[in-house]
Each structure stands twice: as C-alpha cells, then as structure tokens.
Amino acid sequence: MKSNIFRPKRVWGIILRHLYLLKHSLSRWIDLLYWPTVDLLLWGFITLYLQKRFYQEGYWIFQFLGALIFWNILIRAQQGLAVGFLEDIWARNLLHIFVSPLTIFEYLLGLFLYSLLKAFIASLLMAILAFFAFNFKFWIQGVDIFLLTVCLIIFAWSIGLLTMAFILFFGQEAEILAWALALLFLPFSAVFYPIEVLPQSFQMIAKFVPTSYIFETFRKILLEGYTLYTFIIKAYILVFIYFFLSIGIFILAFNFAKKTGKLTKIGE
Amino acid sequence: MFPVLKVEGLIKKYGQKVVLDNISFELYQSDILGIIGPNGAGKSTLLYILLGIVSPTSGKIYYFGKDFFKNRSEILYKVSFASQYISLPYSLTVEENLKVFACLYETFEANKKMDELLKLFKLSEKKKTLTRALSSGEMMRLNLVRAFLNDPNILLLDEPTAGLDPEYIKYIRELFKEFSQKRKLSIILTSHQLGELEKIITKILLIKNGKTLAYGNLLELFQKFNVSSLEELYFKVFA
What we know:
Strand order of the largest sheet of chain B: 6-7-8-3-9-10
Number of strands of chain A: 0
Shape of chain A: globular
Helix content of chain A: over 70%
Number of domains of chain A: 1
Largest sheet of chain A: none
Structural class of chain B: alpha/beta
Oligomer: heterodimer
C-alpha cells in the first residue's frame, strides 16, 4: 500500500482537473486575458494623457502601469485559488476529491500551483502589452521585483485561503468574497499613491497590510532607483504570519465542514 | 479470517440530533452488505463517515485491521465510492475526468485500465464526449468506471442501479457478483430497490433513525423473522 506522505502525482491530478476546465471554457479564458488587457490599455492611456497634459516630469505612467500589473498578480493568484475551490463546489466535485487518497495539503498545493500559472499568464500578457503600447519594461529591476512578486503571491494565497475558509464556515453565500475580499486591502495597500496621502488612522492600518510595504518599495525602485530592503523584510514577516494563520483557519473550517456534514452538501 | 472492515459503536450527532446511534458491523472478503432503511435513516451519513468525508462523534472504523482515522490516505487507495446522486464534473470529457482520478489514485497503467473499464461498462464510444452530454444511466456507469479505476478491495455504492434501465441493472448486478467472487471485492450498497438487492446481497443492515434494527446474514434473518423475501423482511422490521 502507498503511504500517507506527500505524493506529487496526486497534486498533478488537481492541476490537471483545472487545466482541462480551462481548455474547454472560453469564458474562463476571457476572464483570464480580456480584463487584464482592458485594464492595462484603459488606465495606461488615461495616465499617458494625464502625463502629457499635466505632469511632464518623471515616470508617472510607468509607476501606474507597474502598480497595475502588480495588483493584477495579486488578484489573479487570489482568485485562482478561491475560484478554483469554488469550481469544485459548483461541480459538486469536493466529495469525489476528498474520498480519494488526496490530502488537504496536496489539494491546496495543487490550487496554489494552478493559481500561480494563472497569475503568470495574466501578468506576462500585461507586461508584453505594456512594453509594446507604452515602452514600459516591467522586468527591468530583476531580483528585487522578483522578491516583491513572491511576497505578493503569498499574501494573495492568504486572502484566497481566508475566502475558502469563509465559504466552508458560512456556505456559498460567502462566495462573493472570492472577488471582493482582496479589494478590502486596496485602499491600504498604497497601490496607486504613496502611503503618506492616507489619513493617520488609515496609515496605522496600512502598517499591518504587507502590500503597503510592497507597493511603496516598488515605487521607490521605479522612481528613485533604490530598494527599501527593510520594507521588504517587514512585508515578508507580515506575509508569513498571515499565510500560516490563514492555513490554520482554513484547516479549522475544513474540519468544521466535516463535523457538520457541510462538505457533502455544499454546492447542492 | 479477519474482517476487511470493522465498525464499532459509531455515533453521529448534529447538535442534539442523533443521526447514527451506536452502529457496529463487520464486512469480510467477498461480502455484499446491503444497508437498508427509510429516507432519513442515516444510510448516506454512514457511507460518508466510512469514506472519511464526515467525522463521527465517536466510534471506531478499521479497514484491513488498520485505524481509518490514522491511515486515511493509505486506506483510501483500496476503497472506492460511487453514487447516483453525485456526478463527475460536467465540463470535462469522460476521458479527462478519468485521467484526473487516475492521478489522484496513482493508478498503474492508467490508460490501459481506463480502456478496459470503459469497455466493461459499455462506454468506450463515449470516451471523448463531454460528461454533461451523458444520460443519467451513462453517468452512473461512468461513476462505476471511476470507482473501479483503483482496483478497490471495498466498494461503497449509494443507489448504484438508480437511473439504469433493466438491461444494465441485470448486467451490473452480474458484474458485481463476479467481482465479489473472483476478485474478492467486498461491497456495501444502499438501495431502495429491494427486489434487486435481494438478488445480490449476502448480508444486511437494517437501520431506522440511526439505530440498527437488524443485522446479519440475509438467509439467517429470513429464518429469524420467518419471512421469504427482502420486501417482507423490510415491512416486518420497519412496521
């Protein structure tokens, strides 16, 4: 008999299930490619106009485009996870999945990797478009951008896990959070403006939101050419705390759903 | 001979409501156990607990002599499940769905195994068809193909013949018997089709409101209750 330990083939089974789903679904491709394209072109041209008309100095447009691509990475990774989970609920497939030898951690890892793929496709598309439409090279800062991206993705997964936990606790009524929860962090994340423009009370909240450090650092890299490594460290500390907390909350919710029988009924 | 499945004092409560009350039974190699009871008796909950997707309030489950809750993954490689009420994802083809589950069960020579089973359950022509295009009978047969993918030692079936036409019911009944006798497969199944059940089961567990009303070898229970058919037994026990 095979053991309980982690099995890559079982993780691949989860990724494969979602790749097949994507293969057959035009609407899922549209969701993945259309919105990032529209977002980038629309906000890119608006910013270009504002820069030409009012602010000729600096790299204002690049800051905006970079922030947009970055935010999209977070959204895609978070939705890839939470919506991937919802796909299994909508198809009533959770029961089939969890009566197999697959463990909950293998299931999560499968969804993590699939969400990574979705985030990669969307951000690559945006980066290519930004280069051709606005001559913006998103990848130019190399390692530092990579460090920020990894941090961003782990935070996206934390939000995704929290969304999944809410769905298990409160049922499908909570599925709207798959699209809404990440936006709650948007005002405090300093995505399109520096943290100093926020009121004092908002700045206090922003100190506990890892994305505020990520986007502040990103802006410094882009506009002033240096990296705030202390900010990167702070962001990573917060992100790991939230990630392990959200895994704990999700496991709690999963066990709650098994205890209450919700896991067999969810999606009906 | 030791039991392939041993259930001891299984209790399930949702708040104050007792859904399963001290259920115990044993399943041996090649046994076919029918779980029978009216709607709401706790049959599905019992199956879900045996699959580890619902946690019991108390009680023990041993598969192949091992504690299920401590060896879940290892045991589930050899336990399978199919239900008339739970279909595979509609947006994938028959073949794709089976490939996914072949990965989850790490099936050896998956493609060969898939083709053999699709042929056995007369679904070979539907291999490239989207699952949503299958009829309810074909869907149930696909569920059975999936359930046999991992060469199970124990098969749990929830209403396996519901939605099938008489020709397939007979075919699948004979198939279950063959698997049980030649491949030492043990089966637990729930069904409301008492006539069909009687032709296949060797043991029976009658439950109502989560309580065991009768349990044992089918023919012994016929003698004990002085009846000659499962239908008579059902009405006598549940009267």
